[in-house]
Specification:
CATH topology: Rossmann fold
Number of strands: 7
Bound molecules: NADP nicotinamide-adenine-dinucleotide phosphate
CATH architecture: 3-Layer(aba) Sandwich
Largest sheet: 7 strands, parallel
Distance between the termini: 29 Å
Strand order of the largest sheet: 3-2-1-4-5-6-7
Number of domains: 1
Structural class: alpha/beta
Radius of gyration: 17 Å
CATH class: Alpha Beta
Strand content: 15-25%
Shape: globular
Order of helices and strands: EHEEHEHEHHEHHHE
Number of helices: 8
Helix content: 40-55%
Length: 230
């Protein structure tokens, strides 16, 4: 039986990854704040708020009863407010960095320190990592940092294939929030988001599962890959 470790399964893409993994008969290990009702009794779950960096190592210890994981998806992420970077306080950026970057560092350190063999890691990045559009401040910085973090770890985890993957637009609560609440006059990239094609979470998750071996075979470990460009 294959195994999946995943963060952030309460909604959106993460929830869809778990649905598909269960259909594919993976054993699923998840860290998140919320466990969707339909997964109760079907997955190994530890409730964990990734903002509390000091708790993550223990959450991982409580969760994992295996020394080998086929696939780890570092999915949990937050957006923060879309607003001008000069009007964004450092503490707001700090919270986004905590969840989107540093929580993943603790998890990757856990894998190394506890000698957990992980075959493939997908870190969910974003086009925002390279676009740096007006208003995407903390989120853009966090995803660019995630890309570099994953590249750095790829050099220290030679047995593991790592990809920072931008999943394209997915109609999740995060994207819906942007489409419904952000002023497109002030932040023109939001207008583009409104007119661009969007995937459902299940479509996006299925597509990523189907790409796993291609990502592993065709791209060097540590690379940032935008799914829209391959
Ligand atoms: N939607 C898009 O178009 C798009 C595009 C590019 C990249 N992404 C990335 O895709 C990933 C998933 O986002 P989504 O679009 O599916 O949005 P979402 O529905 O808002 O999902 C965010 C996920 O992160 C988890 N999470 C948030 N804060 C957490 C915390 N403090 N501790 C533990 N888990 C936490 C949530 O789980 P809980 O409910 O348990 O907190 C939830 O499952 C993110 O990394 C996002 O940046 C999305």
């Amino acid at each position: 039986m294959k195994s999946l470790f995943i963060t952030g399964i309460g909604s959106g893409l993460g929830k869809a990854f778990v649905e598909i993994a269960l259909k594919k008969e993976y054993k699923v290990y998840a860290l998140s704040r919320h466990l969707p009702e339909e997964f109760e009794g079907k997955i190994n779950f530890v409730k964990c708020d990734l903002r509390a960096l000091e708790n993550i190592y223990k959450c991982m210890k409580d969760l994992l009863d295996t020394e080998e994981i086929d696939l780890a998806i570092l999915n949990a992420g937050i957006l923060g407010d879309i607003k001008e970077i000069n009007k964004t306080n450092l503490y707001e950026i700090q919270e986004v960095m905590t969840v989107n970057v540093w929580a993943n560092k603790v998890i990757l350190d856990f894998f190394i320190n506890e000698s957990i063999k992980v075959n493939q890691i997908i870190g969910i990045s974003s086009g925002a990592a390279v676009n740096a559009n007006k208003g995407w401040g903390g989120y853009s910085i966090s995803k660019a940092s995630l890309n570099v973090l994953l590249k750095l770890y790829s050099r220290e985890m030679p047995e593991t294939h790592i990809t920072a993957l931008a999943p394209g637009l997915v109609l999740t609560p995060m994207l819906k929030y942007i489409l419904e609440n952000v002023d497109e006059e002030k932040f023109p990239s939001v207008r583009r988001l409104k007119t661009s094609p969007k995937q459902t979470p299940l479509e996006a998750a299925e597509r990523i599962f189907n790409l796993l071996s291609r990502l592993k075979n065709d791209f060097p470990s540590g690379e940032y890959v935008d799914i829209r460009k391959i």
